[in-house]
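Tutorial handout. Part one gives the primary structure; part two gives the three-dimensional structure as tokens.
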Amino acid sequence: MLEVYFKECLYFSANRLGRIITKMAEDAFASSGVSPTGAFLLMALYEKEGISQKELGQLLHLQPSTVTRLIEKLAAKQLLYSRMDGRLSLIYATDQGKSLEAVLHQCWNKLRGQYKLILGEQGDDLSLQLYEVCNRLEHPTSGSE
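Part two.
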């Protein structure tokens, strides 16, 4: 009976998936010297230089304290820096951080290739479905339709 509970429990299954995919991502990004989350933060900077910490948190779906710690770690590696603009802390990639762009994209493609090899096209479909499920759970509509 317990096995049925686990199979039918979104909490259990989501955490199991999280552990599995985290290990795959850490292995794929290991050669870059940057954590997967750090890599995604840097990739956000490649798209938008001078992004605010708040906007990074919203984009990455991370709490402000987590974003702060991540920025501190990447700044210690001299991959980014922050500049105050009034009350906003704006984040920029350093030249050293920018030089990792191709490597990070290779790592990202390696990760996608690994789960695509196992899941086929279902991997991309699953990613989109999970993203939508997360949005629905974070922002449930009031009432039923």
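Part three, for discussion. DSSP finds eight helices and three strands in the chain. The first helix runs from residue 2 to 7.
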